[in-house]
Amino acid sequence: MKILLTGANGYIGMRLLPQLLDLGHDVVCAVRDAGRLSVDVDIRDRIEVVEIDFLKEVRPNILPRDLDAAYFLIHSMTSSTTDFDEMEATTAKNFNRYMTDTGVKQVIYLSGIVNEENLSKHLWSRKNVEEILAQGPFALTVLKAGIIVGSGSSSFEIIRDLCEKLPFMITPKWVLTKTQPIAIRDVIAFLTKTLGREDTYNDSFDIAGPSVLTYKEMLHQYAAARGFKNWIVTVPVMTPKLSSYWLYFVTSTSYKLALNLVDSMKIEVVAKDNRLAELLDIETHTYAEAIDMAFKKIEQNLVMSSWKDSMVSGRFRKNLGKYIQVPKYGVLRDQQTMPVSDPDRVLKRIWQIGGETGWYYGNWLWKLRGFLDKLIGGVGLRRGRTHPDKIFPGDALDFWRVLLADKKGKRLLLFAEMKLPGEAWLEFRIDDNNVLHQTATFRPRGLKGRLYWYSIVPLHYFIFGGMIRNIVGREGPRQAQEKKKG
Fold first, then answer.
1. What is the pLDDT of residues 412-434, one digit of tens each?
2. What is the Cβ-side half-sphere exposure of residue 97, based on CA atoms within 13 angstroms?
3. Whole-structure pTM value
4. What whole-number distance in Å separates Cα of residue 354 and Cα of residue 382?
């Protein structure tokens, strides 16, 4: 079958894509920016990529007419706290218009479980999108899930942050709300097995794991699975806004996502039937099993996708391609160079920068800068990185965003997403003479930007100098002198 995959660069899309290819399907990936489709070369060679922004005016004749099916995996919850429902409605309407030019027979939409009259804005929006898609020129299959548990999922990472960092928690009363989590592996099974199944056309199904738990029980079970105990005290005084700030400061989530999640966490999300699991012969996994599977992927460095690599985890919503040309005029720079005797080894170290590896010098200063950024509403340093040694354009890398990751050309270019009075780039490049060029570029915004830069120049001397020395593996004068004395 020829399949259109929207949201191909998202958490679910990245997991679904290789499964569809393994099943022998031809896949057309619809993305806003083809340059940041985070897939390996072998997968890229097997797919067709089309650039579409479903929020913008429909452009005719850009999709293949011989499509058999499509997945609608687009959502905007983390893009805004006010008008994301309007954005989601617009994407659904434009999607329907695009489908009129194709022969698509089935569209599969991954939505949220909706079983209460008083819905959160997030769940109401999902229901509204379903109603819009039902008007399209195709048979609609709706899969409704609650909390999705898997390595890199926003829900799993939030629970992980809370439990690992806070053995004792004072929590809002929404932790007593019941939910029915589902393993990411089971979600992918439902998405693939409903494809082409006419007995699922024009119908909607709740999909969930066998465990019905409160959020408090989920936190306790996570701690038990990791071999430690946690204590949770529930208080009724935390407002949604205070709860959102609590999640924002303790976990790696953005404030916008935290606010929308808290709004939904007050609503019970429990599946009403299990028809589809029986129909497709899928045996779902328990919450404890889902945690165990997630950590096996983490321990083996096999995390395929993370919500943190989504553009909405950072500050910028624009196409980052406009920043790939580092400005030459009206900027301030710190430039460091050093000869390289083993370029492959140095390149490997560059490709491992950030996350658990750190920044090779003054890691406590980087952490302090991340903490200060978080205090003023920035992304902070908690996003880390998805892969320990793989980098793709568009990936999050602590409080940077990857603009260019060209291993053959021996160049890595990062763009700062921390809050700054200007714009900042950090570039690593090994030239043909085996010289490493490390360049920090800052384009200040007015006098405030220039004052900011000059105030941290002394720190740059130590941080950037130490970083390039440690990346290359050379010793600075001080270290060499100490070694000589020893």
1. 999 988 888 888 999 999 999 99
2. 17
3. 0.71
4. 11
